[in-house]
Amino acid sequence: LSEKLQNTLGKLKGKGKVNEKDVKEAMREVRLALLEADVNYKVVKEFVNKVKERAIGEEVLESLTPGQQVIKIVRDELTELMGGEATELNFSDKPPTVIMLAGLQGTGKTTAAAKLANKFKKDNKHPLLVACDTQRPAAIKQLHVLGDQIEVPVFSMGDKQHPADIAKGAIEHAKKNQRDVVIVDTAGRLHVDEDLMTELKQVEEKISPHEILLVVDAMTGQDAVNVADRFNEDLALSGIIMTKLDGDTRGGAALSVKKVTGKPIKFIGTGEKVEELEVFHPDRLSSRILGMGDVMSLIEKAETSMDQQKAQELEKKIKSQTFTFEDFLEQLQQIKSMGPLDQIFDMIPGMSGNKKLKDMSLDEKELVKVEAIIQSMTKEERTYPEVINSSRKKRIAHGSGTRVQDVNKLLKQFEQMKKMMKQMGKMNKSGKKKKLPG
Ligand code: GDP
Ligand code: MG
């Protein structure tokens, strides 16, 4: 999905002016890309119409960078479609907070229960896991194993009691033992059936949970959305956990489930391990889908691959305006170790759409050239590039096996780079103040 949309919208990026025909054409492709990603067709239709309406408005067509604005509209609308802001859990003023999980068999309820418990524990809460799946023989054991692994107690009463009674008993137990969050794992079935719904409703009535989270499997695409719709009729769902959004899931379910059920995705599962649960941020997912950049992941990536101390030195240099070609060379080497440049630049907002900056997004082959040019400079030239006059340029070009134009281009890029790094420095700071994922 991501690639399709990026290609389509990429065509708009380069355009100085976008007319109605361009928008319509782009939207036709967006529509196809969404349908192919298994997004509900009604949702697609409404979405595309909304974007078209906004994009064809005068405000956009008269603007300086219409292409970017169209992309921004698509991004905003995707975010809106998925619920806008991240949605928090409701914690009760009177502990314990009771969270009930529901969903079909194999969607990842038991795993999600453990993942939530693990997360709460890290937040200094005291979770209690409750084994209410009395259907599958190994279900209780599975929860105990996970509980042991994350060192969270598990409450169970075997498989002879009714799940509603087990849940009730667990809440009593939690009160006596100062457990402040009770996570109730329930049974699933292969398909939605009356038997299952009755059982879950009985649990709901008996314990009145603060949160009922439906667990759906992203890999099942539109089926996940239909199932969610069905559960939503019988249970007072407060949100959704969408699992298995790792791998090559097409992601269509994440885009339409909020629209269809009215219930937000609160968490996503991105792997089998207990740590692989994330608070769902609609804006981040739409940015990622469109390749418009996720500042947070860029910063994380930069932080992990950049030596912390070197980064600080660099920041100082940038601030004191003593950033030289020597540093540039070192930076290039750092950047190379971060991964493909395109990917890095795409993560910087505004970068992927900004033509001027795009021009300087050196590709890997060009990097080799750049290194050669810098290596042909004297120490003085690297430190004070302003001394590089035309005869020096000729010498450098000759020494590096390039042309004077290449040297000129690099000098210009270096200036832009300095500017950009200043911007990045700013962004880094403001980005850090924001909440980190999880
Ligand atoms: P339940 O029947 O709903 O309780 O489902 P389980 O929690 O037992 O999970 C079923 C399978 O899905 C297990 O093999 C899990 O490891 C796997 N699983 C659960 N969540 C995720 C996820 O986010 N990503 C991936 N790749 N696998 C998951
Ligand atoms: Mg289970």
Automatic annotation (TrEMBL):
Output the SMART domains linked to this UniProt entry: AAA, SRP54, SRP54_N
Q: What is its EC number?
A: 3.6.5.4
- Which EC class is the enzyme in? hydrolase
Chain sites annotated for binding GTP:
103-110, 185-189, 243-246
Q: Does the keyword Ribonucleoprotein apply?
A: yes
Subcellular location per the Swiss-Prot or TrEMBL entry = Cytoplasm
Q: Which GO biological process annotations does it have?
A: SRP-dependent cotranslational protein targeting to membrane
Question: InterPro entries from the xrefs?
Answer: AAA+_ATPase (IPR003593), P-loop_NTPase (IPR027417), Signal_recog_part_SRP54_M_sf (IPR036891), Signal_recog_particl_SRP54_hlx (IPR013822), Signal_recog_particle_SRP54_M (IPR004125), SRP (IPR004780), SRP54 (IPR022941), SRP54_GTPase_dom (IPR000897)
Where is the segment annotated Disordered?
425-438
Provide the catalytic activity annotation: GTP + H2O = GDP + phosphate + H(+)
Where is it predominantly found?
A: cytoplasm
The alphabetical list of record keywords is:
Cytoplasm, GTP-binding, Hydrolase, Nucleotide-binding, Ribonucleoprotein, RNA-binding, Signal recognition particle
GO cellular component labels = signal recognition particle
- Extract the CDD domains matched here: SRP_G
Keyword Protease recorded: no
Q: Where is the SRP54-type proteins GTP-binding domain?
A: 264-277
The job of this chain, per UniProt, is described as: Involved in targeting and insertion of nascent membrane proteins into the cytoplasmic membrane. Binds to the hydrophobic signal sequence of the ribosome-nascent chain (RNC) as it emerges from the ribosomes. The SRP-RNC complex is then targeted to the cytoplasmic membrane where it interacts with the SRP receptor FtsY.
How does this protein assemble? Part of the signal recognition particle protein translocation system, which is composed of SRP and FtsY.
Q: Its family?
A: Belongs to the GTP-binding SRP family. SRP54 subfamily.
The protein depicted here goes by the name Signal recognition particle protein
User: What species is this protein from?
Assistant: Natranaerobius trueperi
